[in-house]
């Protein structure tokens, strides 16, 4: 059942919010010890909320858009009275004292937050293996990584532990695990969703977004969390589209969504990807072409510049963000308890931030970022969206020893959208011997609605 259909069934008394919650809790109790998608679950509080929603429905009171739907939250987003650990020993005992803006909005629409999901420590990773509380398994491809850093949020949805979840995306941390776990993951335009209450990894890249098993669920969550937040300095004042209506219309009449549309396919994005992945992506592109889209071949000559640019900026901003974890006000001193990847980024950031090196590295990276943003906007000027692989390779088996650059290579196709500040999303396109493969859409800034429309339309014709 689609998430949107379930929401209607709950409001129509066909399913109770409590029954919906209990089914997910049964799954969590049974499967989470192996999958490790959730780090913390609070069932008593969730039951009380579900019972309250059912009473409101029975008495004919108005309920919110997410009434009775169960939501998982990445452990770097503040939720009052939950442990907000960012999967690190640094914050192991830190209890959230307030709700992030996105959480306030989810609660205001009667979404039931069941727990906090696993992640790479401080979102520094692409596999959810760097969590201080153990790796997350991939429910869609057991024994393999779920991707990262929002691997717990993607796995929770893929494993039927919740209806929806939210994560953060700094260089692909929503889209990468969405691809590996075979679910939908959406990174909005930078500033389209409030970052207030997010523990930042690299503040000029970070964005919060949703996971769902279908386009309709993704649209519902975007309807709730998108929009201006006067308390957050990067938040945009923009007219939020009706994502749910757009997705429903596109799903009902996919040919209309693709008729007259130009989709860009970038040669270099396919060149860096495994052939088996490219073959699956091309099948989806052919379906969109058959439905009326015009496919235009594009060239992006700066792909080799993207990873070094992204990581140089990431190191500096992460070093700055972690200075508050000094063990004085709360938590432990981060350098004393953190894992290898977090320490690497702190040390690199400290080194690059020194006056004698900032011009040589950081300022050049900022210049390169401007060039990448300019070139991406130029590519998008004459097309409605760019489509291609989300991740260039299949997820490795958990515990495989990889060199640092091998791990970073997972991000080569996703960091571009963060560098450019544009919206991007991943949706299931197929699988290679049972291992999911995601197709990524990227569009102009604030063209989030177009991506939603194309995802819903492609979902309908697959």
TrEMBL record:
GO biological process: translation
Active site location: 74 (charge relay system), 149 (charge relay system), 173 (acyl-ester intermediate)
Keyword Membrane included in the entry's annotation: no
Residues of the Amidase domain: 20-451
This enzyme's EC code(s): 6.3.5.7
Main enzyme class: ligase
InterPro entries: Amidase (IPR000120), Amidase_CS (IPR020556), Amidase_dom (IPR023631), AS_sf (IPR036928), GatA (IPR004412)
Pfam family, any one: Amidase
Catalysed reaction equations from the record: L-glutamyl-tRNA(Gln) + L-glutamine + ATP + H2O = L-glutaminyl-tRNA(Gln) + L-glutamate + ADP + phosphate + H(+)
A GO molecular-function descriptor: ATP binding
Domain of life: Archaea
Similarity remark: Belongs to the amidase family. GatA subfamily.
Subunit structure: Heterotrimer of A, B and C subunits.
This protein's name: Glutamyl-tRNA(Gln) amidotransferase subunit A
Organism encoding this protein: Methanobacterium congolense
